[in-house]
Amino acid sequence: MNTTSDPEAQSDLNRRAFLKGGSVATLMAMMGGVPLIAQEKTPEGATKYKTSSPPVNCGVIGLGYHGRDILATLARLPNAPVVAICDKYPAFLNRSKELAPKAAAYADYKELLADKNVKAVIIATPTHQHKQVVLDVLAAGKHVYCEAPLAHSIDDAKAIAQAAKVNPKLYFQAGLQDRADPQRLFVLPFVRSGGIGTFGDARMQSCKKQSWRRASPNPEREKEINWRLVKNLSTGLVGELGIHSVDVACWFLNERPKAVTGFGALRHWKDGRDVPDSVRAVFEFPSGVTVTFDGSLLSSFDTSLEVYTGSDATILVRDFKAWMFKEADAPLLGWEVYARKDEFYKQEGIALVANASKASAQGGATDDPAVTGFTPLYYALETFVTNTDLHHAAVEDFAASFGANADAAALNDYLKDLQKTKKHAATAQDGYEATALALKANEAILAGKKIELGKELFAPV
Amino acid sequence: MKLRRSLFFLTLTLAAASAFAQTAKYSAAPGSKLKMDGTSTVHDWTVESALIGGTLEWDAAFDAAPKPGKAAGAKVASVIPVRSLKSGKSSMDAVMQDAMGAEKNPKISYQLTELTLKEAPKAAGDAMQFESKGDITVAGVTKPLAMPVTITRDGDKLKIHGATTLKMTDHGITPPAPALGLGLIKTGDEVKITFDWVTKKADAK
C-alpha cells in the first residue's frame, strides 16, 4: 500500500525528502505541487501518435485512504475517466468528490453497478468486504481490479478467483501492484537468470512508526474503520503490507514456499487492539532458499525494502528504486561502469533503472518516482486500463466477426493468445495464491508456530 | 390428422429449402489469420489478426461442381477490426491504430466484384485457383484490388488463402516515424498482406 494521500505516508515522504536536501522538484512535491516534467517534443520529420489505449470508464468502490490514493492516481492517467464513486460513509464520499468532480457519487455500490456508464470497477473496500462486491461486480458484467489481499479468508479468496475464472469475458486484475511495476520487471531477470550469482536468500521488510488506528467521530465508525486492528477481520501486517513484497519474492524465485514460521508481539500500541505491531515470518522454499518478512508499526528504521542476496551481487529495492551491490570478486558485466552510482554507508550502489535510455532520450526527466508519482500503483492502474480495453475489444470483435460460429472454446483460445499483447499484471490466480500465503503467514504469526504448506494450497482454482 | 399435419409441414420445409437452394452461403468462423508484414529503417515488423469476419456466397450449382470461368453469384464481403491487429506490443498497436485513424474508420473492409476459377479441381479437397477482383477500404479510402486466391474445401468449411501488397500512401496513411526514434526511424510505405480465411457453410451445424 503506497498511500501517498495517507497523511502518515505523506509525512514519511516529507521527512525523507527533507533529509535528502531536496531539489526544487522535491520541494514542489512536498508542497503538494505537480512536478513539472519536460514535455515530450516531437522532432522534425517525426509523426505524433497516441501511445495510450482508448479510455475506459472507471468506477471506484471504497474511498478510504487507499481508495482516494487510487482516485488521485487515476486522475493522472490520460485514459481512465472516473465516472462513478461509492462509499457508504458520507464523509469519505464528499472528500472524494474533489478528486473526481465529474463522477456520479453513490452510497450503495449496487447503484454504481446499475450505472451503465461504468465499464470497469476498482475495489478498495476493507479486505473482509471484497468477496461479495467482486461477485456482484462480475455478475453486473464489469471488469474488476481488486485490491490485495483479495480476502481475509482462504475460502473467500478462492471464491473470488473462481468467479473471475468462470467469467472469461471480463478482465480481472489482482491488486498486487508490484507485478506491473517496470522497476520490478527490470530487476526480475537479474534474480532469475543468475545475474547476481548463486542465490542466497531474500529479506523483505515493511517498517513505519504509525498506529494504524484511524480517527473516527463515534464508536460505530470506530468499529467500522479500524477493522485492521481486530483479529478476526485483520490479515495483520503480513497480510495488509507484507503480501506485496512476499509475493514479489515468490514471483522472482518462481516458486511458492513449503512452510512458514511466524513470530509476533504487541509491543508498543497497547490501545486495546489484539493484533501484533511487530511481526516476523520466515518462509521456506522447496529449493532450500528462505525468505524473511519483518513488519513493524513501532520503528521506521530502513522503512520498506526488499533485499536479494547473491554470491556476485546483492540487489536492494527501496522507494520504488533498485540498486546492485557487487562483491569484490564478481565478474565485470560492462554496463555498470557507465551506470549511475549512489553512495551508501561504506557501500556503493549501482543504480538499476528501468527504461534508463528512454528517460534520457526524453530530456533527462527525473527518475525519482517519489517525485514523479510514477509509483507501482500508477503502473498497475495504467496496466489495468490498457488490458481492460484490449480484453473488452477482443471479446466484442470476436462476437461481431463470427456471430453464430463464435464458440466459447475458440474465444478462450483467442483470449489466451491476447495474453502476449497484454501488459504484465497479477492474475486472479496470482491474487489467490498470494492471499492464501499471507493468511497462512498471519496464522503462523498469531500462533507463534510453524505451518507446513501443502502444494494443494497453491493449486489452480 | 397428425400425419397430415406433419406432411404439410414437411412440404412447407422442402419448399422453403428449395427457394434458397440457388445460393450456397458461408460465414466467417474462428481459425482465420491475417498477417501484415512491413519494413522500417531499423527492423521489419509484423502485425496479426485472428479476426476476419464476413460472408462468402456463390451459386449452389457452382458450390456442388465448380467449373472454370466466372463463379456465378459470387459475393464476398469481409471485415477486419483495425484494433484486432496486434504486434505483441500494446504501445506500438496504439500508434498503428492512431495512424490508421481507427477511431473514425474502425474497420478494414473488402468487397468482391468478380471471382474467376482458373481450372476445375480434380478432387473435392483440392485447392482451387481463382483470380479475384474487388475493392478494399483502409482508413476510409477505397481502392480496387486484384489478387489471386486459393480456396480449399474442408468438410463444411472453405479455406481462402491469398496475398497482396498495399501502399499506406494509397490510403492516405503517412508511414509512421515515431517521435521516440527522433523521426529517424521511418516505416516503409509498402505492406505485404497474407491471409487465411476460414468460412463455414451457413446451414451446416
Number of domains of chain B: 1
What gyration radius of chain B follows from the Cα positions, in whole Å? 21 Å
CATH top level assignment of chain B:
Mainly Beta
Strand order of the largest sheet of chain B: 1-4-6-7-8-9-10-11
N-to-C span of chain A: 26 Å
Named at the architecture level, the CATH assignment of the largest domain in chain A is 3-Layer(aba) Sandwich
- The rough form of chain A would be described as globular
- Please identify the structural class of chain B as seen in this structure: alpha+beta
Low-confidence stretches of chain B: 12-19
Explain what the structure shows:
The complex is a heterodimer of chains A (461) and B (205). Chain A is of the alpha/beta class and 461 residues long. Chain A folds into 2 domains: 10-33 and 53-179 and 377-428, NAD(P)-binding Rossmann-like Domain (Rossmann fold, 3-Layer(aba) Sandwich); 181-213 and 234-367, Dihydrodipicolinate Reductase, domain 2 (2-Layer Sandwich), CATH 3.30.360. Chain A has 15 helices and 16 strands. Chain A is globular, with a radius of gyration of 22 Å. Mean pLDDT of chain A is 88; it is low at 1-11, 13-41 and 359-365. Chain B has 205 residues and is of the alpha+beta class. Chain B has a single domain, classed as Lipid/polyisoprenoid-binding, YceI-like (Lipocalin). Helices cover 17% and strands 45% of the residues of chain B. Chain B is built from 3 helices and 11 strands, in the order αββββαββαβββββ. An 8-stranded antiparallel beta barrel of chain B has the order 1-4-6-7-8-9-10-11. In chain B, β9 and β10 (157-167) form a beta hairpin. The longest helix of chain B has 19 residues, at 2-20. Chain B is elongated, with a radius of gyration of 21 Å. Mean pLDDT of chain B is 87; it is low at 12-19. The interface between A and B is large, with 41 and 37 residues.
